[in-house]
Design goal:
25% helix; 363 residues; globular; alpha/beta; 3-stranded antiparallel beta sheet; 7-stranded parallel beta sheet
């Protein structure tokens, strides 16, 4: 695990597995793929990353388990951190080990129910929200017990002999101040897991239309979208959805994902709780038009949804570096106002939109 991270919206990362494969135009210049290629040649990390990238440094689709005590989410030190789980993989990749996934959620459950838990918020981001929706569709009755069983033997309760984690999770998870007036009280308390935020990554409107409905149909304490790299304009107030995908929306049409409303203002119940946006970094990075970013910011402000701008990436709308040598220029991508983008690099491009940074996070 990394107890610090350069990912602006997280405080720490942990990876109980590594490996992935491309499934989106946003994957073309994957930072994790490049990082995995370097780590596969590192004498200490080579065993963990063996086979996850090929000789060209491209993902192979192989997922290697990296589940060890130092990677357990409930062992992340400190208090109240935002922990990005799976920064070097996709938890809902088809090749992700099923037993590893259950153990991962058992560890997240442990941090919430243990009296000496760290109070972290665990953040999972996927490009495969349909698989995530299918996983959580098993429901609390099944998953809470499965996670309890998955923690037996390695999540230690008390002296480690008198009680298994499954027994503890089944019988010690309801606060004393809560009265047991309903059979499903335990599920009310633990479902969805209060310390787990679920999100999807999209890069353009087509992906937003295809992926956000599945996210909104998945139970989560907080749901969010990361539009990074942003490769085109995205209107989150007009998301195309098929019939039956969203509660309260019986016919196909459009949904305002920021407010949880259909186009006739009928409530659909779920909505996005957070929006992250950022430009592409690294070799071959593609620029984004500032108009796209401003539009997304304004959508969130009007809907009172927290907006987090990571950075412009490699290409900045204005060259403010102060360097003597001019930076390469390229026309701004369309649609949007014409102009140039300057290849200043992420460190110099900055994180400001119209002279202000946006670091909003859900409460």
């Amino acid at each position: 695990m990394a107890t610090t991270t350069r990912i602006e919206w997280a405080d720490a990362t942990t990876n109980t597995a590594v490996g992935c494969s491309h499934c989106s135009p946003g994957c073309d210049h994957c930072y994790a793929e490049k990082f995995a290629h370097r780590l596969s040649k590192h004498p200490i990390a080579a065993k963990v990353y063996a086979g996850v990238v090929d000789e060209r440094g491209k993902w192979t689709g192989k997922i290697n388990s990296n589940f060890s005590e130092k990677m357990y989410p409930h062992r992340v030190p400190g208090k109240g951190k935002r922990v990005f789980v799976g920064s070097m993989t996709d938890i809902f990749h088809p090749n992700y080990p099923a037993e590893n996934r259950d153990e991962l959620f058992a560890s997240i459950l442990a941090d919430y129910i243990f009296a000496n838990g760290h109070g972290h918020t665990f953040i999972i981001l996927t490009k495969r929200p349909q698989a995530m929706e299918e996983y959580f569709a098993a429901g609390p009755g099944t998953l809470l017990r499965r996670w309890g069983r998955a923690g037996n033997g390695w999540i230690i309760v008390g002296d480690g002999d008198s009680e298994t984690f499954e027994e503890y999770a089944d019988g010690q998870t309801i606060p004393q101040e809560m009265t047991s007036t309903r059979d499903n009280l335990r599920q009310d308390y633990l479902w969805p897991l209060p310390n787990l935020w679920l999100g999807v990554t999209v890069c353009n409107q087509a992906e937003a239309d295809a992926k956000i409905p599945a996210l909104l149909a998945t139970p989560a304490a907080k749901r969010f979208v990361s539009i990074e790299p942003m490769l085109g304009p995205v209107d989150l107030t007009s998301i195309d959805y098929p019939s039956g995908r969203i509660e309260g929306a019986e016919e196909s049409g459009m949904i305002d994902a920021l407010r949880g409303l259909t186009m006739d203002d009928a409530p659909t119940h779920p909505a996005l709780d957070w929006v992250i946006c950022g430009g592409e970094t690294g070799s071959g990075a593609r620029p984004m038009n500032p108009d796209w970013v401003r539009s997304l910011r304004d959508q969130c402000q009007e809907a009172t949804v927290p907006f987090f701008f990571k950075s412009w990436g490699e290409w900045a709308p204005d060259c403010l570096c102060g360097t003597k040598k001019p930076h390469p220029e390229t026309p701004r991508p369309t649609p949007g106002h014409m102009g140039c983008m300057f290849k200043c690099g992420k460190a110099n491009s900055g994180r400001s939109i119209d002279k202000r940074t946006w670091d909003e996070v859900p409460q």
